[in-house]
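User: tokens in, sequence out, please.
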């Protein structure tokens, strides 16, 4: 089961073929192959990358997620 890399919540919803949303901390996750990107949803609906807040090793150590 997928967990949020930010808050460790399991309350993750799928919003697109490779996009997920965490209802625990309200961030969007994008998964492409083994690479995960994390975004904050701004008030105007734009996305701001939070990837720089996570160490490269942490992002690579995340369990694999397969988008169906």
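Assistant: Sequence out:
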């Amino acid at each position: 089961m997928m967990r949020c890399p930010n808050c460790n919540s399991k309350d993750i919803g799928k919003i697109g073929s490779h996009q997920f949303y965490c209802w625990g901390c309200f961030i969007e996750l994008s998964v492409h192959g083994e690479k995960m990107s994390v975004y904050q949803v701004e008030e105007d609906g734009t996305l701001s990358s939070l990837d720089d807040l996570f160490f490269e090793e942490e992002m690579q150590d995340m369990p694999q997620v397969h988008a169906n």
